[in-house]
């Protein structure tokens, strides 16, 4: 089944070329189907790139999904055109009266800034609180996961001496959990962050369940026991070249970063990276949408 997207969204052309099933609004209006409604709060600088990455995974599920794209503020984006933002993005005030089956909050390049010093921290907290009443299940990625750990569960992150960046091996901590169905004994996922949450604090928290960890990268998948919040500290949505592009950007800005580990063949940045996390990312999103959104959400959204 397709992801339902706005007519002329740039990601649509890219995904159609990859045989990812997406459907414009104009066609979807002729179908008598109750789609799963997903709200995406996109905090990443390059909006179109992140839209495409998320839609690529959402389009790999057997459910018809309708998305709304939301921005955190009205300030002009440095990396995305004004026309694109005005055409495809909404503000919180435009949708805060609605209910959604699912919500995705992306990462943000704010890893070394204290939460309270982030210009839109108050708004993020407002949206997170709103999601607990208006969304069946919310997926938080990377920085957003750390923000949710802090705001919802009182868990503070620890800043790292060096950026944790690369592709890391993970193992599952639990068995017979619907979110982990089909997972291999080991799987890989990208990380790109300057902080971490202490594993023992997650394990000892009465409202959280740690599901997957990495010896090198620490906690990865955490699910709230009420199943409303899924916190992913990495980036399963990343494309093949995303970490390489971030690495090149950091070098150009003279930042003290090392090349991503376990990423470039022979550890050579001149070599094209090999993607070995896409199947895990697709399965993670499919399981979340099926077991924690579709199976849990009421048919009438006003009952969320």
From TrEMBL:
Pfam families: HTS
Annotated positions for site Important for acyl-CoA specificity: 111
InterPro entries per record: Class_I_gatase-like, HST_MetA, MetA_family
Gene Ontology terms, MF aspect: homoserine O-acetyltransferase activity; homoserine O-succinyltransferase activity
Keyword Transferase listed: yes
Annotated compartments: Cytoplasm
Protein name: Homoserine O-succinyltransferase
Classification lineage: Bacteria, Pseudomonadati, Pseudomonadota, Gammaproteobacteria, Alteromonadales
């Amino acid at each position: 089944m397709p992801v339902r997207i706005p007519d002329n969204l740039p990601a649509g052309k890219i995904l159609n070329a990859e045989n990812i099933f997406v459907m414009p609004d104009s066609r979807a209006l002729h179908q008598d189907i109750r789609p799963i409604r997903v709200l995406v709060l996109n905090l990443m600088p390059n909006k179109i790139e992140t839209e495409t990455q998320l839609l690529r995974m959402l389009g790999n599920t057997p459910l018809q999904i309708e998305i709304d794209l939301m921005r955190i503020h009205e300030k002009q984006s440095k990396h995305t055109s004004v026309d694109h933002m005005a055409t495809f993005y909404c503000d919180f005030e435009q949708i805060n009266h609605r209910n959604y089956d699912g919500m995705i909050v992306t990462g943000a390049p704010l890893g070394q800034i204290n939460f309270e010093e982030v210009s839109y921290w108050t708004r993020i907290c407002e949206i997170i609180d709103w999601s607990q009443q208006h969304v069946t299940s919310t997926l938080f990625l990377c920085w957003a996961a750390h923000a949710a750990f802090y705001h919802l569960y009182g868990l503070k992150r620890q800043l790292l001496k060096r950026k944790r960046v690369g592709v890391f091996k993970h193992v599952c901590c639990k068995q017979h959990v619907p979110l982990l169905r089909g997972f291999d004994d080991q799987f890989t996922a990208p990380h790109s962050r300057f902080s971490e949450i202490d594993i023992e604090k997650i394990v000892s928290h009465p409202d959280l369940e740690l599901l997957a960890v990495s010896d090198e990268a620490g906690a990865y998948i955490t699910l709230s026991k009420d199943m409303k919040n899924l916190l992913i500290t990495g980036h399963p949505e990343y494309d093949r070249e995303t970490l390489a592009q971030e690495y090149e950007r950091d070098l150009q800005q003279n930042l003290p970063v090392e090349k991503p580990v376990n990423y470039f063949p022979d550890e050579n940045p001149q070599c094209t990276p090999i993607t070995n996390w896409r199947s895990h990312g697709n399965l993670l999103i499919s399981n979340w949408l099926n077991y924690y959104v579709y199976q849990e959400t009421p048919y009438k959204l006003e009952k969320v």
